[in-house]
Design brief:
With 633 residues, the protein is an alpha+beta fold. Helix content is 40%, strand content 13%. It has 19 helices and 17 strands. Strands 1, 4, 5, 6, 7, 8, 9, 10, 11 and 12 form a ten-stranded mixed β-sheet that branches. A hairpin with a 5-residue loop joins strand 16 and strand 17. Helix 5 crosses helix 6. About 11% of the residues have low confidence.
Length: 633
């Protein structure tokens, strides 16, 4: 800021300044605000005298005079003239009403502009609508607005018509852009945010994949490094851990559990410590992000852009004959990649111009995405909000069952349309430009709306409480764990049964208690357990006969007894060598034989009972006493 001394010095210097030259240059052309000439130019004035050059990029004096003369003539021509104006039912930008006398009058932003032009140029007009409420295109020209303008059935089309390349050959668009139309998607408000829910929300899908890969790969990597280290160093103190121990250490560290492994080598300790540090950082980030998501997360929608609709094959609906349909059907337009969705019945174009009906029928009931221009969407959601608020005053979720995407589905400049060769554009466009630059058209489009946003994506007034959906992943983990354990248990039973059958077949081929090379074997615990499932005559060797009606073998004393007076008893005696058998055979009329064999280092008499099954009778005194006690007690 200048000081007082500087101001005094500046005033003193101005006294020596030359006086201001208020005389205008010679030959300067002056124009009034209405465009009329102030200075009368001589007829023989040349371009050089007027300050114009042949190469200068500006209109010549003759062009200016002709243009002003043409505008003056057009104003005189339209004064008192009766025009015929076509429009569309596109609330709130343009819509009509039929009075009791059959007269159709226009409403909306378009006719507020027309009424302003009417007062400016003093003309009257009639309002007509096409037979079908469609804009029209090359393949859809019949009964459309474009057809009426192209055939000069009307003087102009007063509607916010999107400027599409295909329609330029039929009509002349206004040079003044009324606005840049934005078509927005409206959908049912999802219960959960599209950014994720529950335990998987803090990390992206790729992060989860990498965590799973590291969990699977780190265990074998540690195992291999320990093996390599032991082979290179020849250390006999640090024994290498098994692969199962290494894998279990990795999983236990991820779950914040301890480990029984205590490595001695420094390199092995560093490997373990590295994984611990990684898990500590990872779990810290996960805990912090999970807390932030459950408390401060921003609500997002599943469908925000055109790519979401395209990749997810989401059904959507828009108005029949509107800008969205023609932008999809036209090859060189921005939405032409959605053309195949029309053939697959994913895109629906409705003839109903009532937005409330389309919202309830397609969005609320069938879950479609409704694509509509922004002014109509805002009015529609605001009226729906007022109606639902009258039903429930406090519950904001009831007030706002719908959500609106923020990114536009389609953006197109919108203008009025005139027949090709019409001069109304030159007369009306300067006035329309003044309305656009002053912000009046934008104000008229949002005049019925409140300043606050209606039903935003994130309902900030509602508290974020944990829902059952947030804990759904914990249920999935439990179910997955139990299902995996059940599958492993079933596999164990299957292998137990298969091994038992294999061992039973091996015994049947090579004899009881012997292998193919003649070595004695002991039945596995799988086969011993499998015996419990058998009953009846197929009783396995060694099965307890307690509680069953089974005839016991002869007493141990009778096997070697040579007493007389018991002719009906079975006696064991040594067979003749000529028979080629070694051991003892059972005497008597039944001609039942028993053979003495060495099984597992012990002597047994193999005796076949009346059921055809083999019984082993121990020969040693302690074993024989226990055997006899089993059958007698």
């Amino acid at each position: 800021m200048a000081t007082g001394i500087e101001l005094i010095l500046a005033a003193a210097l101005c006294l020596t300044c030359p006086p201001l030259n208020e005389t205008l240059p010679e030959g300067l052309i002056q124009l009034n605000p209405d465009g009329s000439l102030v200075t009368e130019m001589p007829i023989d004035l040349g371009l050089e005298d007027a300050g114009l050059d042949e190469e200068a990029p500006m209109e010549t004096l003759e062009v200016l005079r002709n243009k002003k003369e043409k505008l003056r003539n057009m104003k005189e021509w339209i004064n008192g003239k009766h025009l015929k104006i076509a429009t569309l039912e596109d609330y709130p930008l343009s819509y009509t009403e039929v009075l009791e006398n059959g007269t159709r009058i226009g409403h909306g932003v378009s006719f507020q502009i027309i009424e302003f032009l009417q007062k400016k140029f003093n003309f009257t007009f009639d309002v007509v609508v096409p037979q079908d409420n469609i804009i029209g295109s090359t393949m859809d020209l019949d009964r459309s607005l474009i057809e009426m303008v192209n055939n000069s059935d009307v003087d102009m089309a007063a509607a916010f018509i999107p400027s599409l390349s295909e329609q330029r050959s039929f009509v002349f668009y206004s040079t003044t852009i009324l606005d840049e139309g934005e078509w927005i998607m409206v959908m049912r408000r999802p219960r959960e945010s599209a950014s994720g829910s529950g335990l998987l929300a803090p990390f992206d899908f790729r992060v989860w994949i990498l965590i799973f890969v590291s969990l699977v790969a780190v265990g074998p990597i540690i195992y291999v490094l320990i093996i390599i280290r032991n082979r290179l160093t020849g250390d006999s103190v640090q024994h290498p851990y098994s692969l199962g121990h290494c894998a279990w250490f990795v999983y236990g560290a991820l779950m914040k559990q301890g480990s029984t492994l205590s490595p001695i080598a420094d390199s092995t300790r560093l490997l373990f410590a590295t994984w611990w540090i990684f898990i500590t950082i990872l779990t810290s980030f996960y805990t912090a992000n999970l807390t932030a998501f459950l408390t401060l997360s921003k609500f997002t929608l599943p469908y925000n852009t055109v790519n979401d609709i395209l990749t997810k094959n989401k059904h959507f609906v828009s108005l029949r004959g509107g800008g969205v349909e023609y932008a999809i059907r036209t090859t060189n337009e921005s939405l032409s990649m959605l053309n195949h969705m029309i053939h697959n019945n994913y895109a629906v174009f409705t003839d109903a111009s009532n937005d409330s009906y389309n919202l309830q029928n397609y969005v609320e009931r069938n879950g479609y995405v409704f694509v509509r221009d922004r002014p109509a969407i805002n009015i529609m959601l605001y009226r729906d909000y007022l109606y639902r608020k009258s039903l429930s005053f406090n519950d904001e979720k009831v007030h706002c069952p719908f959500a609106m995407a923020k990114d536009p589905f389609l953006k197109k400049k919108r203008t009025f349309a005139y027949p090709i060769g019409s001069n109304l554009s030159e007369l009306f466009d300067p006035e329309l430009l003044n309305l656009v630059e002053s912000g009046i058209i934008k104000h008229l489009s949002a005049r019925e709306l409140p300043s606050a946003e209606i039903c935003p994506q994130d309902l900030g007034s509602t508290e974020r409480q944990l829902r059952n959906g947030d804990l759904m992943m914990t249920y999935y983990i439990m179910l997955t764990g139990f299902a995996t354990a059940l599958a492993v248990f079933t596999t164990e039973l299957l292998f137990r049964y298969i091994n038992g059958r294999h061992e039973a077949n091996q015994w049947a081929r090579h004899g009881i208690g012997r292998t193919t090379n003649g070595q004695s074997v002991r039945p596995s615990r799988w086969l011993r357990g499998l015996r419990r499932f058998n009953s009846g005559d197929k009783q396995l060797l060694g099965t307890s006969t307690h509680g069953q009606n089974v005839t016991p073998p002869p007493p141990y004393q009778s096997i070697f007894s040579q007493g007389h007076g018991h002719g009906g008893e079975q006696r064991w005696h040594r067979p003749a060598v000529a028979n080629g058998q070694h051991g003892l055979i059972l005497g008597g009329d039944q001609n039942l034989g028993g053979v003495r064999r060495l099984i597992n280092g012990r002597d047994y008499i193999v005796f076949r009972n009346s059921n055809g099954q083999s019984q082993l009778v121990p020969v040693r005194s302690p074993s024989a006493a226990l055997f006899q006690y089993t059958y007698t007690e």
